[in-house]
Design goal:
By secondary structure, the chain is an alpha/beta fold. Helices cover about 50% and strands about 15% of the residues.
Length: about 240
């Protein structure tokens, strides 16, 4: 069997006008994971979504690992959903995202308020009743994420066929730097969860947490989900959700 490790990005700028940027803590979280990975096999390949926080997490992970010659790939299938578009379709006031974020940040319970707004917006998006209003519908997002996973698997199978190897070798470890929505959607696909369960799973994924998927021939399974022991070992203050 070969393994695909889905890694959520480090802490980003939740509640800020530009969320797609790691905080200083997020950069350090990624380096902690890289240093932790030194104890394991060096990955064969690194994949990342196109978003800045994905690429930054991969970069700082690599800094912690201190290995420079690993193959890296950027794949749009591992991009997170567009939360600005989802919020704007839910409430047109979000069209000026920076202005609304600034006003919410002035509130005492700004994190709770923003999370509540996003939860309501996600509920509307995943209902399937307004698909034509979004740049990418919920069903399209799920299909894209699963296709990203399948692209990696099919690429590895093709390599094995070219070398006349019938089974994927056990020496293959592939890391994918992505987001909570993407990871929970792939988990949903493998475990056949419903949409509500997938969204609940999304809320539990910590920054730089690791979810391990195993594949061989036509078999696809999950070994573990949301492992953030590297952060716990560094200290409880390193464990974050956003």
């Amino acid at each position: 069997m070969a393994a695909i490790y889905l890694i959520r990005h480090g802490q980003a700028s939740f509640g800020k006008a530009d969320y797609d940027q790691l905080s200083h803590k997020g950069m350090q979280q990624a380096e902690i994971l890289g240093k932790h990975w030194v104890e394991f096999r060096i990955p064969d390949q690194l994949y990342s979504g196109e978003l800045l926080r994905h690429r930054q997490t991969m970069e700082h992970f690599s800094n912690g690992l201190e290995v420079e010659d690993i193959q890296t790939f950027i794949h749009p299938g591992f991009n997170e959903f567009d939360h600005v578009d989802i919020l704007t379709c839910y409430n047109k006031n979000w069209h000026n995202f920076a202005n609304v974020s600034y006003k919410i940040n002035e509130l005492n319970d700004h994190n709770k308020t923003l999370q509540n707004e996003l939860s309501l917006a996600l509920k509307r998006w995943t209902s399937g009743c307004f698909d034509n209003q979004y740049k990418e519908s919920w069903s399209q997002f799920k299909e894209r994420c699963v296709q990203g996973l399948q692209d990696i698997i099919e690429q590895e199978r093709a390599k094995n066929h070219q070398t006349n190897v019938k089974k994927v070798t056990s020496s293959k470890d592939i890391l994918v730097f992505t987001s909570a929505g993407t990871i929970s959607t792939i988990i949903q696909h493998i475990l056949k969860l419903n949409d509500e369960q997938a969204l609940q799973m999304k809320q539990q994924l910590r920054n730089t947490s690791v979810t391990k998927i195993l594949f061989s021939d036509n078999k696809l399974s999950i070994d573990y989900i949301n492992n953030y022991s590297h952060l716990e070992l560094a200290g409880s203050d390193w464990v974050t959700f956003r």
